[in-house]
Design goal:
- The chain is an alpha+beta fold.
- It folds into two domains: about 35 residues; about 100 residues, no CATH class.
- The chain is about 40% helix and about 20% strand.
- It has five helices and seven strands; from the N terminus they run H-H-H-E-E-E-E-E-E-E-H-H.
- The chain has a four-stranded antiparallel beta sheet with strand order 1-4-5-6, with helices on one face. The chain has a three-stranded mixed beta sheet with strand order 2-3-7.
Length: about 160
């Protein structure tokens, strides 16, 4: 309403907004008594650079969100990739970049897997921790059982 009839097209409106923006950025702020543009220039010194373009584009192109099942394996291209058992029933993000699969919980990177053709891609520590939750017999060497089971899975993977 204040500019009713003062501009004829979008470009006129953009020019008016640019003039207002320029004027406001040169005036002292009531709280800081410093122009916003001066504060912005100072703040820019402390900003980190953006990651490289390839990394940024990969976030936009393909982000898959999955709930972690009791098997600990989230699926990417038909193959399973493990996460720690503390993420069971939690939603994680899978972000493939080149030949790596980055798995995040919220903003925390929890593991990076190599993308493979194997059906099961367990991290040894994930598998061992999960076995520790299911095997309660103290006489059983969980580390040994984990190693043997993963070797069997590797045999399945190579078929």
């Amino acid at each position: 309403m204040p500019y009713n009839g003062e501009f004829e097209d979008e470009q006129d409106l953009i020019n008016i907004l640019n003039r207002i923006n320029y004027k406001v950025n040169l005036e002292n702020n009531q709280t800081t008594n410093i122009p916003p543009n001066v504060l912005f220039q100072k703040e820019k010194e402390y900003l980190n650079p953006l990651p490289n373009k390839l990394l940024l584009e990969s976030y936009v192109e393909y982000v898959d969100v999955q709930t972690v099942p009791p098997t600990l394996l989230v699926t990417y291209k038909g193959n399973g990739y493990s996460v720690h058992d503390k993420f069971i029933n939690k939603r994680v993000k899978l972000i493939p970049i080149d030949d790596k699969l980055y798995i995040y919980y919220n903003t925390e990177l929890i593991i990076i897997h190599d993308v493979t053709n194997k059906k099961f891609n367990y991290d040894f520590n994930h598998y061992r921790a999960a076995l520790g939750l299911t095997i309660k017999n103290e006489d059983i060497d969980i580390e040994k059982v984990a190693m043997e089971n993963l070797e069997l899975l590797d045999q399945i993977n190579s078929k």
